[in-house]
Amino acid sequence: MAVFNPKNREIECKLVFYGPGRCGKTTNLEWIHRTFAKQVTGDMVSINTEGDRTLFFDFLPIGLGKIRGCEVRVQLYTVPGQVKYSATRKLVLKGVDGLVFVADSMTVRREKNLLSLKDLADNLKEYGLNIFRMPLVMQYNKRDLEAEGIPLMPVEQMERDLNRQLKVPAFAASAVKGEGVTATLKEILRLTLRKLQKDMSWAQ
Amino acid sequence: MDLATRIKGLIKEADIYRAQGLFAEARDNYANAISLIESLSQVKNKEKLLAGLVQKIRGIDAQIEKVENAPTAPELSPETQSLIKRLFSFSRSDSEDNAALDGAIALTKFGQYSRAIEEFEALIDRQDVRLVAAKNILRCHLAMDAIAAATDQYGRWRQDPRFDDELLEKIRSFLDSLLKQRNVDVQLPGPIGEEDHLVPVLVEIDEPEDDDEVLDISAVRFTAPGGVAEGKPIEYEVSFQSGNVISILISERDKSVIEALRIGETIADVELTSAVAIFNGTAKIMAKNQIKVGPRKGYFSVDLQIKNR
After folding, report:
1. What Rg, from alpha-carbon coordinates, does chain B have?
2. Which helix (DSSP H) or strand (DSSP E) does residue B37 occupy?
3. A128 CB near a chain B CB, below 8 Å?
4. Residues of B at the A interface (Cβ-Cβ below 8 Å)?
5. What is the pLDDT of residue B309?
6. pLDDT digits over B7-60, tens only?
7. Mean pLDDT for back-to-back runs of 10 residues, chain A (204 residues)
8. Cα A11 to Cα A74: distance, rounded to the nearest angstrom
């Protein structure tokens, strides 16, 4: 849940990168960390387990400066993708204001994407949130692997699989190359801040 | 596509899957490549090729094992623990004690029990949160399977002037129920005066009946046994788990449900959600206490001993 301090004109919100294991959530944050050094307000913290897999979460605080008279701070998180860390995923999701669903474009990961999206909807529901009403952006990651000869799902198919009902903004991306990461981030920030304006009237 | 190209493609894909950390997918591709090679009668260096692929599968199996056996709650650095406290304390309470309590509880959720115990111990000085802190200390010890540490701690509190008889009795009853839920039969003496010394006697420790009993349960669903929701399915998030005992929090607004859950009774058909599966079982109502302080003040904490069917 975002915190708005009307006295100091400061707002802090929480964005979570969700998706199946090894889909590139951490890579998104690492790229943001490298690319937006000026906006980064603290260390990126990654709590990993064996094989560089996220164990608990990644955390990256950024500051967007003053927007319409209000200092905007954003906390970026990733969740652990591995199925067994369900409880941690749910915990990290608590208080979320906006979501990026990072889907893996590889054909072999189709089912994992679907399961992870369902898991997200279920976890949100447990906090009384409706995925259809949350600021949400889809990212179809790993598009660069097509050049390596890896079978990828066409974006149209991923749209049908994951975004047919949600109809949220979606971006093809290669987080490892930074392609599509900024567009994804900008869109989720735009949607989240717009929603928070409705809820909290933070902007002047 | 000729077979040689197909085999090369499978191996190349497998190498990339492996580099991506997708071990199961990589393993499948190597196995498919092996099957194809074996089906061919004339392949140059067939044995060498097969041996190389078998070696790759062995390597992947070792990596899968490492991932699966990696500790799920390793001890983190003090800095990271402090960050967890800050990021996952959701209390908006103005009370410093409640905020500190919330931070310590956040540590337990990430398995940082030793640090959490330190934080809870500091709160023992604060009368408002003493009972909650004490209970959490005991829960942390039991989460680490340190039964003796829990009973020793209770023994020290018996001699501690900050703990009056009423408080000690509540703690004794709480620890007693936790130990019983773990099939540990320990005689916990009451406050000093009732007995002169504490000698926890470990009478019998039963092996857990089934490994399934210690699965992490995230939610529990059952038919309301009474009250306004009688006959309707109700679902609660699990707030804490110690072995096969889970705690759920029920808002005091659902008073009719709380009243219908009677200590000692068993709910015959319960749907339990874990990270790996949803399964059915039974739930015996072990304890029911209203929370007096903290962000969940007014809620009822209901302890259920679950049994897989």
Report:
1. 26
2. helix B23-39
3. no
4. 9, 12-13, 16-17, 20-22, 25, 63, 66-67, 69-72, 74, 76, 80, 83-84, 87-88, 90, 109-110, 216, 218-219, 237, 274-276
5. 63
6. 999 999 999 999 999 999 999 999 999 999 998 888 788 899 999 999 999 999
7. 92 97 97 96 91 92 96 97 90 96 98 97 93 98 96 98 97 98 98 96 88
8. 8
Distance from CA of A47 to the nearest CA of B (A): 8
Using CA atoms, how far apart are residues B126 and B107, in angstroms rounded to an integer?
19
The residues, ordered by sequence, that sit 6+ positions from B244 with a Cβ below 8 Å of its Cβ are B181, B182, B208, B213, B214, B305, B306, B307
The rounded distance, in Å, linking the Cα atoms of B15 and A130 is: 39
Which tokens belong to A106? 């590889």
Q: What sign does the dihedral B141-B145-B147-B152 (CA atoms) show?
A: negative
Closest CA relative to residue A189, chosen from A7, A36, A52, A81: A36
**Residue A18 has which token pair?**
């969700």
By the 8 A CB rule, do A28 and A17 touch? yes
- pLDDT band of B210, cuts 50, 70, 90: very low
Buried (b) or exposed (e) across B67-95, using 16+ Cβ within 10 A? Answer: beeeeebeebeeebbebbbebbbebebeb
Bridge partners of residue B306, in order along the sequence: B283
Q: Contact at 8 Å (CB) between A24 and A141?
A: yes
**Facing residues of A197 across strands?**
none
Say how far apart CA B182 and CA A121 lie, in whole Å.
Answer: 34
ipTM given for this complex: 0.90
Of A50, A90, A126, nearest to B70 by CB-CB distance is A50
Angle, in degrees to the nearest 10, between helices B130-143 and B165-181: 20
φ/ψ (deg, to 5) at B74: -70, 155
Copy the structure tokens of residue B250: 């029920």
Kindly state the average pLDDT of the residues B121-150.
93
Helix (H) or strand (E) holding A101: strand A98-104
Q: Are strands A45-49 and A53-67 parallel, antiparallel or unpaired?
A: antiparallel
Q: How many CB pairs under 8 A join A and B?
A: 77
CB-closest option in A45, A59, A91 to B109: A91
The two three-digit tokens of residue A146, written as one number: 């097509």
The CA-CA-CA angle for residues A126, A130, A134, to 5°, reads 120
Beta-carbon separation of B276 and A84 below 8 A:
yes
pLDDT surpassing 60 at residue B223: yes
Quote the pTM value. 0.75
* A8-24 pLDDT per residue, tens: 999 999 999 999 999 99
Residue B224 CB neighbours (<10 A): 18
Nearest to A81 by CA among A104, A61, A105, A106: A104
- Rounded to an integer, the average pLDDT of B123-151 is 93
